[in-house]
Design a protein that fits this description.
Number of helices: 6
Helix content: 25-40%
Order of helices and strands: HHEEEEEEHHEEEEEHEEEEEEEEEHE
Radius of gyration: 40 Å
Largest sheet: 6 strands, antiparallel, barrel
Distance between the termini: 81 Å
Number of strands: 21
Length: 426
């Protein structure tokens, strides 16, 4: 006797029947959810793969190189000391104008500070004595040079000796040797003078009195009465220089940027720069220095320096991080299409074009500069032609930073599929 499923369920006990019903309902719900999910995925795929037409338009493209850097401290001179002791008196305040040599601070030297000061003074005196000795020796060598020269002229030369005569050779060599000694001693004097200058600077730096090294405006005072300065460096017996203040020497504000090898060749003196701070302050400037020598680390980078046009930038602090856009060139009235509409293989670029008959054809094109989302077409497409383009690819790309080459679009729009967002490419 054949029993159907309904009869089997009726013969089950009530708890078993309930469990079976719940399981059946769950299977139906899960199965329905899977079907809905697959339908949604298929729908999204169809939406994401949709293609549209964009028009090849004439626009201006502004080529830029985008860089990051810092405000330079080139217009600041540090006031430092190697003195070891406690700040006793501060003679200046922020914003005060000082002249080179003006007294700025006075310290009460510790015993170690006094010893360092006396040692520096002794080194300075020794250097001065060495310089005096070198100068005296120069005078002696000058006398010797004169004597050897006169002896040669009065004997070998006056007697018309042949140049290969031993007497001629001996007297001529003695004269030239004296001349070389005199010249070498001049170099020794220059070295001795440099040692005097260095010793005097150390002597001044270990003094209890700290003076202004240059003329300018006092800023960034870090020394206050009661503050201890000076720490003896390990093994050297000398104290390390410590900053007490800075002197702003002028309002010539600079920014320093690092560039890659692919960009440094595009940058030249006097090119325009837009400089932006982290809080979106924007300033204009120009390139005043291009260093193509390069610094090698993980990669090789090259430094360019920009000078601000406005004195408003004087409020910017040294070492502040900034971004820059260096304007390289401008392409006027060039045909542009979305960069992602271009396919490049084996060095050949092509696009899909909807021709006048409504058919799709592959067109080889010659491309120029790019602006991330837009690329210049030099040949292969005429203004007003319709380009087949996937909006999903463009939308995905537009959400990413650092796309494409360093170009900016100036004016116009894409047409056809509308105006896409413009990325700031770095």
């Amino acid at each position: 006797m054949k029993i159907n499923l309904r009869e089997k369920i009726k013969r089950l006990k009530k708890p078993q029947r309930k469990t079976l019903i719940i399981a059946t309902v769950m299977i139906v719900v899960i199965g329905g959810g899977i079907l809905l999910w697959r339908h949604s995925q298929q729908k999204n795929a169809a939406t994401n793969n949709q293609e549209t037409l964009v028009t090849a338009n004439l626009q201006n493209l502004q080529e830029v190189v985008e860089v990051s850097g810092t405000i330079s401290n080139a217009n600041y001179t540090e006031v430092t000391t190697q003195a070891i002791g406690t700040v006793a008196t501060v003679y200046i305040q922020d914003g005060q104008t000082v002249q080179a040599g003006d007294k700025l601070f006075e310290l009460e030297l510790s015993p170690e500070g006094k010893e360092a000061y006396q040692s520096a003074y002794a080194s300075y005196l020794n250097a001065k004595n060495s310089l005096a000795s070198a100068e005296n020796k120069l005078n002696s060598l000058q006398i010797t040079l004169f004597e050897k020269n006169q002896y040669f002229l009065n004997h070998a030369d006056a007697e018309d000796l042949e140049e290969d005569d031993p007497t001629y050779i001996e007297q001529w060599a003695a004269w030239k040797a004296a001349e070389n000694d005199y010249k070498n001693q001049s170099n020794n004097i220059a070295q001795a003078q440099a040692q005097v200058n260095s010793a005097y600077q150390t002597y001044q730096n270990t003094s209890a009195i700290v003076t202004a090294p240059v003329s300018g405006v006092i800023e960034n005072i870090t020394a206050v009465p009661g503050l201890v300065f000076g720490s003896v460096s390990s093994g050297s017996g000398t104290s390390l220089s410590e900053r007490m203040a800075t002197i702003k020497t002028n309002d010539n504000i600079l920014a320093s940027f690092s560039l890659s090898s692919s960009d440094i060749g595009k940058v030249k003196i006097d090119q325009k720069v837009i400089i932006t701070t982290d809080d979106d302050q924007e300033f204009t400037g120009k390139i005043v220095s291009v260093d193509r020598y390069g610094t090698t680390g993980t990669t090789t980078t090259y430094t360019v320096i920009a000078q601000f046009d406005s004195t408003d930038a004087t409020a910017l602090l040294p070492n502040l991080s900034v971004d820059g856009q260096i304007y390289i060139s401008e392409r006027e009235n060039v045909i542009t299409i979305p960069t992602l509409a271009i396919t490049t293989a084996a060095g050949v670029s092509s696009v899909q074009v909807k021709n006048a008959q409504g058919q799709t054809e592959t067109r080889t094109v010659e491309i120029g500069v790019s602006s991330g989302n837009l690329t210049e077409i030099i040949s292969g497409i005429s203004e007003g032609e319709q380009i087949i383009f996937s909006l999903s690819e463009f939308s995905s790309s537009s959400k990413q930073n650092n796309m494409g080459g360093g170009m900016m679009m100036m004016g116009g729009n894409m047409g056809g599929g509308g105006t896409p967002p413009q990325d700031r490419n770095r």
